[in-house]
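Entry type: protein chain
Record version: 2
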Amino acid sequence: MVSINWDKRSFPIYFELLSKMGSSNLDEQKTILSEVLPLVNNYNVCVLGDREFCSVKLANWLCEQKVYFCLRLKKNHFIERETDIWLELDDLGLSPGISFFLKGVKVTKTLGVTRF
């Protein structure tokens, strides 16, 4: 589902029922977002992704689309806080109810992702 947030309210503008159980995959996410992004291209857009939208590949695709985003990452992802110093998110001391905003960090050692 894609919603517009305005004045602390969320209004659904697009959704698609998938013919399967479980989470959507990257191709499905990109297809849905590709339908909606042209409709809101005159606005500042920030994709807020939770749980199933924790894909680093989705983050790279959103960067290519020049779309702001905030994605919840799984605790086993690594970030590069300083050059060649990688930390697993689980080691940052997060607990339920606590959140961090990290800007301009490399995410995951294995996929060679650029900073976001």
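Comment: The chain has a mean pLDDT of 82.
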